[in-house]
């Protein structure tokens, strides 16, 4: 973790975090300045209200005695004034509550939007980094309410100070030192409580990875995808225990803190109660000695408790402000993350022109934290109208090649050239608009068919003919036509009346999504892993047609499809070990020929005596 984070856990860091206040103010201001100003106004009035109540009550009680001499009108006048103060106070509180609720929602929406915008802007390597994920989690967890709390606490400190000073004013007129003691007393607890808050923050800070882990266990226990394995392997109790272990760790820490807080509170409450009761006794004795009126007994006792309570709440407010400072720092820390990858790719650059050639020139890429290259000196050239099949064992770098080519991992060495110009010199978005891709771990969107396919080309989302055309190319048009609401049929299990598809059908939807994009370059990463041999042959046939004047790269372990590609590249441990057409590679009798023959022989030995049908079909069945 960075030095900045460690620093925040010290007491000095608590105060240093006040530097974020101007930013918090700007944030609050940007949400709704009018509402912010009026909330501040209400808060000031709220601060004066208790003392106005106190004075009105004192006046009311004293007016009883006055009315004996001056008549009943004096009493009525005080009573009316009292009622007005009560009504105004209630009204202020209601209006303030209403506005606060609205403002809180607006603020929380704005912050969540800002966090998500930041997360979306991160590069893939950054996004896959566990530390960045922890920071995101910390920011998300605190963000929706901390800035609001800070604002509320600032307000309540202001209100508290106004109330405290006005209540103390009542006492100063009588005995100034009482006000002085009452105001200063709670400040003695400031450092102890602050340390406690700091400890709580430290616990919270280190909880981020554990929270993610606990979230994952609970996700496995409650998600419909995981439920089959969890049931069958009887993982339920084991996972639940893991989940509960984490929760219990949190609970033990919280309990320890709660005990400390109880102890400190007991000590300070004891001292403060002794002092306050002594002062109340002093008021009573003064009344007994006829130094003050009965109405003033009420006024002074109220002023003592009000001053004591408000100075205590001012101190509590300050402590919470300091504590929230620490949390808010996490939010800004995440928002200030320097996304090197995005910067590298998002500065103003020319658009990618229609693609004619794609060339890899000695491309090398290594994942962060790894000590071997996932791609090492990979070179090849592909022209418009050609298809390239990439084959190789598991972990040989095939999927990485797709991700590097689409700009998801920009930190590669060597050069990727588009029409002879470096990929890095182009605008990334414009490249991605020219690419249709099916990832190995393609998405299954819990939405309707229209969106599942339409996400491939959002501007054409409402163009039913085009969606049907893409679905035809992916071989699922008859399925869509048979669905109850056709393109508006919801897919998956999360939504009500969701229509669940088989693995292969989902994969074809993903293929339709890629085909729906009017792309120059299609990248299919094991697009037939879930498909039956007939479906696979059908999809590849359509793929070849689609690629008539475009570029296509597909990754497959099924040699029945691979053999028809114009070029075949064999990767082994990130390096190109063979390159050529099917015939050329078979003639070389190297790794490709070995893998190809292995699949054919496996099929043939399983089907001895069967009629010699289409060779393509045999290999397809043998594959995977
Ligand atoms: N996100 C990642 N972070 C770190 N290492 C990764 C990541 N993805 C893949 N790797 C590593 O990079 C290497 C190449 O992985 P890649 O997914 O490109 O292989 P592949 O040829 O597509 O394998 P498969 O046939 O199993 O799909 C592997 O050693 C893998 O462990």
TrEMBL record:
GO terms for cellular component: plasma membrane. It comes from Tumebacillus algifaecis. The keyword Cell membrane applies. It is found in: Cell membrane. The chain crosses the membrane at residues 36-62, 74-92, 154-172, 178-197, 262-288. The keyword ATP-binding applies. PANTHER family: ATP-BINDING CASSETTE SUB-FAMILY B MEMBER 10, MITOCHONDRIAL, ATP-DEPENDENT PERMEASE MDL1, MITOCHONDRIAL. Coiled coil: none annotated. Residues 358-598 form the ABC transporter domain. GO terms for molecular function: ABC-type oligopeptide transporter activity; ATP binding; ATP hydrolysis activity. This is ABC transporter ATP-binding protein. Residues 34-321 form the ABC transmembrane type-1 domain. It comes from the Bacteria. Pfam families: ABC_tran (PF00005). It is a multi-pass membrane protein. PROSITE patterns: ABC_TM1F, ABC_TRANSPORTER_1, ABC_TRANSPORTER_2. Keywords: ATP-binding, Cell membrane, Membrane, Nucleotide-binding, Transmembrane, Transmembrane helix, Transport.
């Amino acid at each position: 973790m960075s030095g900045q984070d460690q620093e925040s856990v010290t007491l000095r860091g608590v105060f240093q975090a006040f530097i974020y206040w101007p930013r918090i103010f700007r944030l609050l201001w940007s949400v709704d300045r009018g509402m912010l100003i009026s909330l501040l106004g209400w808060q000031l009035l709220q601060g004066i209200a208790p003392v106005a109540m106190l004075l009105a009550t004192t006046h009311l009680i004293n007016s009883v005695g006055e009315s004996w001499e001056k008549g009943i009108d004096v009493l009525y006048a005080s009573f009316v004034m009292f009622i007005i103060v009560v009504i105004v106070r209630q009204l202020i509180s209601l209006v303030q509550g209403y506005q606060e609720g609205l403002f809180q929602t607006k603020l929380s929406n704005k912050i969540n939007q800002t966090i998500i915008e930041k997360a979306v802007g991160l590069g893939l390597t950054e996004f896959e980094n566990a530390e960045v994920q922890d920071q995101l989690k910390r920011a998300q967890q605190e963000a929706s309410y901390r800035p609001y709390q800070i604002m509320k606490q600032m307000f309540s400190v202001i209100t508290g100070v106004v109330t405290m000073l006005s209540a103390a004013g009542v006492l100063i007129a009588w005995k100034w030192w009482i006000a002085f003691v009452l105001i200063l007393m709670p400040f003695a607890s400031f450092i102890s409580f602050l340390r406690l808050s700091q400890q709580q923050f430290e616990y919270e800070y280190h909880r981020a990875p554990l929270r993610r882990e606990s979230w994952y266990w609970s996700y496995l226990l409650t998600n419909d995808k995981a439920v089959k394995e969890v049931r069958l392997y009887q993982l339920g109790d084991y996972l639940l225990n893991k989940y509960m272990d984490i929760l219990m760790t949190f609970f033990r820490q919280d309990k320890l803190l709660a005990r400390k807080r109880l102890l400190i509170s007991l000590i300070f409450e004891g001292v403060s109660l002794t002092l306050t009761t002594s002062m109340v006794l002093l008021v009573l004795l003064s009344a007994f000695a006829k130094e003050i009126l009965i109405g003033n007994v009420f006024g002074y006792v109220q002023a003592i408790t009000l001053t004591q309570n408000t100075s205590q709440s001012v101190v509590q407010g300050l402590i919470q402000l300091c504590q929230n400072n620490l949390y808010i720092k996490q939010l800004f820390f995440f928002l200030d993350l320097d996304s090197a990858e995005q910067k590298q790719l998002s500065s103003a650059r020319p658009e990618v022109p229609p693609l004619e050639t794609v060339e890899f020139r000695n491309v090398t890429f290594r994942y962060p934290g790894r000590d071997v290259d996932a791609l090492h000196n990979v070179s090849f050239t592909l022209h418009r109208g050609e298809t390239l099949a990439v084959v190789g064992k598991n972990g040989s770098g095939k999927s990485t090649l797709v991700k590097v080519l689409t700009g998801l991992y920009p930190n590669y060495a060597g050069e990727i050239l588009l029409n002879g110009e470096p990929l890095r010199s182009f605008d990334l978005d414009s490249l991605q608009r020219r690419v249709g891709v099916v990832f190995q771990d393609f998405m299954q969107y819990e939405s309707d068919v229209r969106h599942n396919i339409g996400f491939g080309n959002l501007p054409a989302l409402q163009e039913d003919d085009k969606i049907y055309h893409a679905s035809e190319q992916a071989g699922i048009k008859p399925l869509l036509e048979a669905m109850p609401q056709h393109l508006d049929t919801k897919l998956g299990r999360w939504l009500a009346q969701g229509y669940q598809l088989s693995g292969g059908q989902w994969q074809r939807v993903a293929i339709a999504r890629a085909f729906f994009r009017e792309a120059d370059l299609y990248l299919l990463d094991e697009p037939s892993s879930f498909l039956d041999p007939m479906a696979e042959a059908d999809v590849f046939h359509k793929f070849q047609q689609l690629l008539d004047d475009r570029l296509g790269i597909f990754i497959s372990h099924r040699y029945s499809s691979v053999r028809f590609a114009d070029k075949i590249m064999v990767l082994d441990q990130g390096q190109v070990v063979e390159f050529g057409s099917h015939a050329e590679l078979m003639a070389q009798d190297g790794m490709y020929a070995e893998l190809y023959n292995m699949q054919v022989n496996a099929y043939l030995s399983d089907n001895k005596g069967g009629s010699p049908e289409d060779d393509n079909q045999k290999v397809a069945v043998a594959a995977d």
